[in-house]
Amino acid sequence: MIYGPCADPRIIINDYPYQIYETLENGEYILIKSRDKTITKHLGNGTIQNIFAKRAKDKSVFSLIPSGMLTLNWSGEFGFDIKVYKERSVPEWS
């Protein structure tokens, strides 16, 4: 989640940019669900907008975050939360 107010929020994780071209007012937020490949903007009045087309297209916001030590950079003008899931390609019991 990315919390407003801000314009065109960009977070760089290990030199890889994750960016959305959208403006957020105070009380609004953007929710990116990589598993579902969705990007929604949640307005203060409860309205939800699909803003999939406003993602940066040269570098996908759905790219996996690498494991290990991470370096994060952002302007500091907005807040954000990242939830990372551990997934395995082979079941543990195999």
Number of domains in the coordinates? 1
Could you report the average pLDDT, rounded to the nearest whole number? 93
Radius of gyration: 15 Å
Order of helices and strands: EEEEEEEEEE
Largest sheet: 5 strands, antiparallel
State the gist of this model.
This protein is an all-beta fold. The chain is built from no helices and ten strands. The strands form three sheets. A five-stranded antiparallel β-sheet has the order 8-7-6-1-10, with no helix packed on it.
Give an account of the 3D structure.
- By secondary structure, the protein is mainly β.
- It has one domain.
- The chain is built from no helices and ten strands.
- The strands form three sheets. It has a five-stranded antiparallel β-sheet with strand order 8-7-6-1-10, with no helix packed on it.
- Strand 3 and strand 4 form a beta hairpin.
- It is globular, with a radius of gyration of 15 Å.
Topology:
Layout: E1 2-3, E2 6-7, E3 10-13, E4 16-19, E5 23-24, E6 29-33, E7 38-42, E8 48-50, E9 72-74, E10 79-80
Antiparallel strand pairs: 1-6, 1-10, 2-5, 3-4, 3-9, 6-7, 7-8
